[in-house]
Specification:
InterPro entries: DUF1697. The chain is built from six helices and eight strands. It has about 180 residues and is of the alpha+beta class. A hairpin with a 2-residue loop joins strand 6 and strand 7.
């Protein structure tokens, strides 16, 4: 069975730390047996086709181990299938077409999260910023962009991300990953 996936690497190529050149990422994915590998931007987004039949968690663990062996540091990786990525984009609870891409972000999680994880957060204190939960995803509306978002800063605290892999992408990247993983 041939399946199209996206790999989302967390925290690479930021401020000169954890450098993973995209050409080398493409090579690693190819060496892991995947085909039709392409990368998007320098922030750790890759699309690939796999015939291995392995699940997303297994593919992510294999890629993480390959990166650690090749580069000498650990990187959290998520692997998501194309149908899931399209479903996340389609389920956006905010009016994406009417917003600037810098105002809308999706945080992808390695597993489902429930509202009780965020119950201690006073969302009203961050208005007009807000977030909504989806399927293994959190949609963040930040009118001034992610860099100025106090809500994004609060959501990144260990209390909310403990024991889970989370990585955030802006709306342009969310849409592009959905496109790159079409069969």
């Amino acid at each position: 069975m041939t399946t199209r996936y996206a790999a989302l690497l967390r925290g690479i190529n930021v401020g000169g730390h954890k450098k993973v050149p995209m050409a080398q990422l493409r090579t690693l994915l190819t060496e892991l047996g995947h085909s039709d590998v392409t990368t998007y931007l320098q922030s750790g987004n890759a699309a690939f086709t796999s015939t291995s039949g392995a699940g997303e968690d297994t593919l992510a663990a294999e890629l993480g181990a390959a990166i650690e062996q090749h580069f000498g540091f650990r990187v959290d990786c998520l692997v998501c299938g194309g149908p899931y990525l399209r479903a996340v984009a389609d389920a956006c609870p905010f009016p994406a077409a009417g917003l600037e891409p810098r105002q809308l972000h999706v945080t992808y999680f390695s597993e489902a999260v429930t509202p009780d994880r965020f119950a201690r957060l006073d969302q009203a204190a961050f208005l007009p910023e807000e977030f909504r939960l989806g399927d293994r995803a959190l949609y963040l509306y930040a009118p001034e962009g992610l860099g100025r978002s106090k809500l994004a800063e609060a959501l990144a605290r260990p209390a909310f991300t403990k024991d889970i892999t989370a990585t955030t992408r802006n709306w342009n990247t969310v849409v592009k990953l959905a496109e790159l993983t079409r069969d």
